[in-house]
## 1
Amino acid sequence: MHEYIAEPYDVLYFRGNKSFHFGEWYSEGVFPPLPSTFQGFVRTKMLDDMGWLDSSGIVTKPSGDIAKEVGNDESLPFEITGPFLGNDNDIYFSNPRDLFRATQAGHTTICQSVLNSLHNDTESDLDFTFSCAQMPDGKLDKILPPAFISLNELVQYREKMEFCISTKEELLFTEDRVGIGLDKEKKGLKNRQVQTSRFYVTPYNRLGDGVGLYFNINIKALMGGTSKLGSESHLVFARKIRGGANSLLEEKLSPQRAQLNESIFKTRTFRLLLLQPGVFGSGWMPFAFDTTSRKVIATEPKTRMQLELLSACIGEPFTVSGYSYQSNKETKKQEGVKLKPAVRAVPAGSVYLFKIVGSASDADVQELIAVLDNKKIDNQQFSNMGFNHTIVACGQDIQL
């Protein structure tokens, strides 16, 4: 396992899938970058390390050799974990969506889980019965926790429903930049022409001192050095921070598994948290499910254990796409590029509360934790990019 920090020299901007039309004055990007965006940076860095890129960044080797080393649109021959905000000592993740602020004092936020109140069935035309969890009182902007949770705080989240979270205002800053649109109708002119009064504002992201994008890969080590990242190809410096059998994330999470096993065996419930967005074959659910009993009964494919969904805080789905550069095979110019197929994704930080159906031994629970905790739910090639990364947290003693 090889762990790295990609430290930007300047601000970063990652374009989303929302079209930006005339008349709109504010353009929003995506941050942190999606795994589907970041994997391009890793693959380009690998090709550069092998000397397979010329001075213009064009690949100089046959496509078959490239696919063997760094993959293509259909496959990825290695696994990436990340990217997450991080530094040499800590990693920061999107805050779990089942946490809300209870009280606040100074720079400490006390968070509590919204999943501790499940009642009052709601009538709908869905194939299953569902209940609305009771939200804490107060305006949404006053009860939302900080945007990021540290690795040490994530360890606490796995064991309890209420704990302290720091605000982390020093991690990330927003800088608005003003741009002007181009007039594409004025053809035949050497210089690009701008359109009068077509101004817009774009928020760029600047990372705090010592903060970069953490990632790890399970293949040979990358060489330290610069490469381009983001919609405007700003430079970042990738450097190795650790190496060994286990990543920093695994070293922090593995000691808890015995305690988690005991807690889940007792309550028969557990929470499944997405550290990265999820692209699943069953849509919004991580596993295939059945609703004939008016309940959502999912089947974990590796253990074959049946799980009843008690609650879910998953947020609004979004679209993942990107450009394929395999459509132009005649010249080195990337003309005639095409879009990759668009898929719907569940946002990072989404949480599912499951109840184990039927009898399950201590060994069964231990096996379930082994296949879900700090693992990626298989959906190639998305899981190898870094999507579908999950961890397990304790459940609740709920009588339903």
## 2
Amino acid sequence: MTEEQTKKERIDSLLEEFVSGGDVEGAAVVTRDGLLVTSSFSSNTDAETLAAMTATMMGSAETAMHELKKKEIERVIVEAKDSKMIAMGTGEETILVCMVSSKANLGLILMNMKKTAQKIETEIEK
């Protein structure tokens, strides 16, 4: 087993732990240039397209905030009638994105997401 496979397996485990915490319908780790690292979304979700769109969304939000002379963004939240999509940086290289029900406890989700993002960042930097 190579070191890269081991790293991916550890990231998969962190993602699985995050999703199993409740109210998270699916999650993925994507690179900032839109490539899929890993995903727990169902098979009817095109995770590679989601990865590309998440990177574009985060990049656009970061550019907008930079133009407004604001500090770095912490997260991007997109709300639909029945769900929310949340994207959060996990360091310089990757983004954690998840889908939650509109009824989910957003505070709890954000707290768990931040912890998971920090663990993923640490894992990627190894």
